């Protein structure tokens, strides 16, 4: 769980240092703007922007029951963030597994990617795709009722 928050923490600390330096130089507006930029970057790379993660076993069980895809991801991954942003509200219709919080999920990703933890990896009906096109992922989502 700590790895998931490393990048956001570093971004906030760097932003604080930049803002403090600007404030000391007498530029409070610039300091506030820089701190805001760094905080927004930290938020975008944090687990907060992703739907709630569940364990790999639970995700597989739910996927078998409802047909929704399982998306394996990790925080700080720009490709995961891109997929999440492009899916928009549809992202809630998939099961998300953070491989940094779930060792079993990480093992599943390594099995699907020749030993590499390459994410996002999407699992649908026992088949996996690595870094898939967002249109393909949308096609795999169940139709809204």
Walkthrough of the structure:
With 145 residues, the chain is an alpha+beta fold. 54% of the residues lie in helices and 11% in strands. It is built from 6 helices and 4 strands. The chain has helices at residues 2-24, 28-44, 56-66, 78-87, 103-112, 134-140, and strands spanning 70-73, 95-98, 121-124, 127-130. Strands 2-1-3-4 form a 4-stranded mixed sheet. Helix 1 packs antiparallel against helix 2 (28-44). The longest helix has 23 residues, at 2-24. The two termini are 35 Å apart. The model has no long low-confidence stretch (mean pLDDT 90).
Short account of what is shown:
With 145 residues, the chain is an alpha+beta fold. Helices cover 54% and strands 11% of the residues. A four-stranded mixed β-sheet has the order 2-1-3-4.
User: Could you describe the largest sheet, including whether it forms a barrel?
Assistant: 4 strands, mixed
How much helix, percentage-wise, in residues? Answer: 40-55%
From the alpha carbons, calculate the radius of gyration and give it in angstroms. 18 Å
For the termini, the CA-CA separation is 35 Å
Overall pLDDT confidence: 90
* Spatial order of the strands forming the largest sheet: 2-1-3-4
- Could you spell the SSE succession in H and E letters? HHHEHEHEEH
Class by alpha and beta content: alpha+beta
> Which regions contain 5 or more consecutive residues with pLDDT less than 50?
none
Q: Tell me the β content.
A: 5-15%
Helix count?
A: 6
| Number of distinct beta strands | 4
Categorize the overall geometry.
elongated
